[in-house]
Amino acid sequence: MGDTVDLDQFSDWMRRYAGVIHDNAPLLTELDSAIGDADHGSNMDRGMTAVVDALDVGEFTSPADLFKKVGMTLVSSVGGASGPLYGTFFLRFGGKLGAGPVDAEGLGVALHAGVDGIVQRGKAAVGDKTMLDAWVPAVEAYDAAASSGVGAALTAAAEAAAQGRDSATPLVAHRGRASYLGERSAGHQDPGATSTVLLLETAAETLG
Amino acid sequence: MKKLINDPADVVAEALVGMEAAHGDRLRIDYEHKVIYRKDAPRQGKVGLISGGGSGHEPLHGGYVGPGMLDAACCGEVFTSPVPDQLLAATTEVDGGAGVLHIVKNYTGDVMNFEMAAELAAAESAVEVRSVVVDDDVAVQDSLYTAGRRGVGTTVILEKLVGAAAESGRSLDEVAALADRVNAAGRSMGLALTSCTVPAAGKPTFELGEDEMELGIGIHGEPGRKRVPLASAREAAQLLVDPILTDLPYGTGDSVIAMVNGMGGTPLIELYLMYGEVHRLLEQAGIGIARCLVGNYITSLEMAGCSVTLVKADDEFVDLWDAPVNTPGLRWGA
């Protein structure tokens, strides 16, 4: 209660996530080989490396500034579907953050705006076996735990995202490249939902 | 991984250097944005045609830049769509005052990136942008429950026909309407005998046994709809042609532009053998072949296999097909 997240923590979140993505790039690409086109790990790694480069040279006065840069960098360096989806998330997320530190309620508003952006851009819904299977339960869990503070809410969100990711594994994909496999996509873990869980786990570690 | 490369990270950029060295008389390259331009773009008063997508499908799209086809091709990483910055730069560059048509293959990433570029173009410039999304792959069923049919072989034929129309001075509305008609008239189906290796991944995208083939593949090394026992060319041709013929449907008396396309790792001797089988099947069905293409036109790196594309063609399509074209990938009459 009463805890807030400041610019340095947000910046730390992005740097830590870049490291986590680099370490998990082979896993993400392997998951993508099974039901996609074997590039999610290398694309995200390239994108987050570009984000760290941008953070190194940029001077940011507010979280809104920071995430605008993160979003635009991902859109222009990742490609595929992940670039526009993660890019749109951070652009909308940052758009709801003001100049100063943000509390649990404000962070929740920003998370919702980001996830709404993913829905609009990707035209997908829960159950389609996409990253939204992790995002949507995550924001619901965040809301339910927001009164306990940022750390507790993000931890709940990361746990719900992991459950959502796992619950999508047996499903048949209805959106994205995995949908072309039809029934054969069932039983495979979704790469986008996996990178989403990593993002929220890193958030719980750095922002809480 | 056995490939003639220097570093997996530099494959696309270094291929562009070779492209300009080979075809600098007709093409110029923007290395920063990885865009291949027709040397004399923008052409005043002509509708600008842009396509783009992941690399690894050569000659598509860069090999189709030049008089009679595209004004620009935006190159993504291997099998990864280009990003909005690249598409926006190309859109602004090729506009000769008559507007720009984006030719997009229906893949989630390509569609999103082109959409973002069109939104940015509308916000930042006065260029009028239209788009056509090619979705001709009959292997994808249940389009309501998927991302829809993929854009494959019809893209090549569409870029030729629409390119001829733009060259002859048709308006953006006319060119966009033609693109929709070509897409609606085209159907494709492909099969793979082997997988392929994305340089950055270093190993094959999927494993395929010696006695198996993958039916209903796209062009990104993604697994297909069904894995079936390896069949003879005669049976394989039937597996590709039947679902196409029943889908449009084509019938007795129809005329088509037919393409037997190699996926990159199948020799021409096998492609011609397959073309013979396809020709025989179409003859049996009473379908005339007005024009044809046999060769590697839209590939998946070194994948072995082929695809069949049929575009139902009227006299207008045939005239546009015969119009002069001068690109690295297709050249006649010029």
Give the SSE layout:
The complex is a heterodimer of chains A (208) and B (334).
Chain A: E1 4-5, H1 7-35, H2 40-57, H3 63-77, H4 82-95, E2 102-103, H5 104-122, H6 132-145, H7 150-168, H8 191-207
Antiparallel strand pairs in A: 1-2
Helix pairs in contact in A: 1-2, 1-8, 2-3, 3-4, 4-5, 5-6, 6-7, 6-8, 7-8
Chain B: H1 11-23, E1 27-30, E2 35-38, E3 48-55, E4 72-78, H2 84-94, E5 100-105, H3 108-124, E6 129-134, H4 154-167, H5 172-185, E7 186-192, E8 212-215, E9 226-229, H6 233-247, E10 255-262, H7 268-284, E11 288-295, E12 305-312, H8 315-322, E13 325-326, E14 331-332
Helix pairs in contact in B: 2-3, 4-5, 6-7
Enzyme class (chain B): transferase
Subunit structure (chain B): Homodimer. The dihydroxyacetone kinase complex is composed of a homodimer of DhaM, a homodimer of DhaK and the subunit DhaL.
GO molecular function (chain B): glycerone kinase activity; phosphoenolpyruvate-glycerone phosphotransferase activity
Mean pLDDT of chain A comes to 94
Largest sheet of chain A, if any? 2 strands, antiparallel
- Give the C-level CATH assignment of the largest domain in chain B: Alpha Beta
CATH architecture identity of chain A: Alpha Horseshoe
Number of domains of chain B: 2
Q: What's the count of strands of chain A?
A: 2
How many β-strand runs of chain B? Answer: 14
* Overall body shape of chain B: globular
The biggest beta sheet of chain B reads: 6 strands, mixed
Order of SSEs of chain A: EHHHHEHHHH
Radius of gyration of chain A: 16 Å
Task: Please compute the radius of gyration of chain B using only Cα atoms.
Answer: 19 Å
**Class by SSE composition of chain A:** mainly alpha
The name of the CATH topology of the largest domain in chain B is: Rossmann fold
General form of chain A: globular
Distance between the termini of chain B: 40 Å
Strand content of chain B: 15-25%
CATH topology heading of chain A: Serine Threonine Protein Phosphatase 5, Tetratricopeptide repeat
Termini Cα gap of chain A: 11 Å
Q: Could you say what the CATH architecture of the largest domain in chain B is?
A: 3-Layer(aba) Sandwich
